[in-house]
């Protein structure tokens, strides 16, 4: 049974590339168009990993992480940020919110797959 | 005299605010345009290289797979497959320019909207000043304009926060906590 990943990003092209890369590595990927959509989908299914952007309309990545960490079934699910933001301040905020890792865009598909494999196998 | 001095300082404050405020927005837009242009240029170059390399790789793959002795070309085919995958990965990294440049364009649009608001303050105030207004009335209007511009200065700090710092399309850092 393939591991499931929720990929949250408001950029359609980015979501497509994340999906393409992770599906090629054998993962089952569900896409969400922003934090709110991600939260709604996370309520319907417990994913093995959440990969989220930071700057999105309706709900940003940090808020999504805080909301997920407040849900019993997401307390131990790995959450990775995939964002253009690279400041130490933002990384600290991500860590405090409950993120398990910080990936700065643009991503290399092979490196992304390696990290995901390291985190969820 | 006192009134003229106050009027003078209000006017000076206003002109400084317009100049400084306008300048800051324009400078941010200029910087973002240069960054957008650099990212687009690099993306096109990288994507062009990747697609050519993929095309060459596929042609070689086709030629090798047509050879009668498939056993001896097996390793070469595997190596070619790896090479093609690497070029596809590079293309995927290059294609992410759209995400970054669209964020930069959104930021520039916000700066332009703020600049538009600065001009709107001038426009509103211009209509409020009657041709026969006395110094006190003009002073009051200048004060309102300066207060509005001070408020917009606070908005500038928020709009100008850099969310895209990348100058090149190299894959970014990865940090696991």
What can you see in these coordinates?
The complex is a heterodimer of chains A (121) and B (177). With 121 residues, chain A is of the alpha/beta class. Chain A has 5 helices and 5 strands. Chain A has a single domain, classed as Rossmann fold, CATH 3.40.50. Helix content of chain A is 45%, strand content 19%. In chain A, strand 4, helix 4 and strand 5 (101-104) form a beta-alpha-beta unit. The radius of gyration of chain A is 13 Å and the shape is globular. The mean pLDDT of chain A is 95. Chain B is mostly helical and 177 residues long. Chain B has one domain (2-159). Chain B has helices spanning 2-65, 70-95, 97-128, 135-159; one strand at residues 174-176. In chain B, helix 1 packs antiparallel against helix 3, helix 1 (2-65) runs parallel beside helix 4 and helix 3 packs antiparallel against helix 4. Chain B is rod-shaped and about 100 Å long. At the A-B interface, helix 1, strand 5 and helix 5 of A face helix 2, helix 3 and strand 1 of B. Strand 5 of chain A pairs antiparallel with strand 1 of chain B, so a sheet runs across the interface.
């Amino acid at each position: 049974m393939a591991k499931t990943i929720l990929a949250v990003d408001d950029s359609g092209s980015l979501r497509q590339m994340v999906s393409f890369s992770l599906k090629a590595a054998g993962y089952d990927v569900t896409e969400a168009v922003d934090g709110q959509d991600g939260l709604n989908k996370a309520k319907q299914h417990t994913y093995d990993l959440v990969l989220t952007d930071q700057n999105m309309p309706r709900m940003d990545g940090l808020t999504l992480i805080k909301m997920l960490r407040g849900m019993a079934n997401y307390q131990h699910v790995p959450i990775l940020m995939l964002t253009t933001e690279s400041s130490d301040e933002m990384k600290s905020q991500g860590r405090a919110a409950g993120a398990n890792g910080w990936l700065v865009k643009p991503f290399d598909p092979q490196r992304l797959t390696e990290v995901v494999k390291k985190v969820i196998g | 005299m006192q009134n003229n001095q106050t009027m003078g300082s209000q006017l000076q404050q206003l002109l400084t605010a317009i100049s400084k405020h306008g300048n800051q927005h324009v400078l941010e837009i200029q910087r973002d345009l240069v960054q957008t242009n650099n990212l687009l240029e690099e993306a096109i170059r990288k994507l062009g290289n990747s697609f050519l390399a993929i095309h060459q790789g596929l042609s070689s793959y086709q030629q090798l797979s047509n050879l009668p002795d498939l056993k001896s070309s097996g390793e070469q085919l595997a190596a070619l497959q790896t090479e093609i995958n690497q070029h596809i990965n590079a293309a995927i990294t290059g294609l992410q320019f759209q995400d970054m440049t669209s964020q930069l364009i959104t930021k520039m649009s916000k700066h332009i909207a703020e600049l538009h608001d600065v001009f709107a303050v001038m426009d509103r105030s211009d209509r409020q000043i009657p041709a026969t207004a006395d110094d006190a009335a003009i002073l009051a209007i200048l004060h309102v304009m300066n207060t509005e511009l001070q408020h917009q200065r606070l908005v500038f700090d928020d709009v100008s926060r850099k969310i895209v710092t990348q100058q090149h399309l190299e894959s970014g850092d990865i940090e696991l906590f």
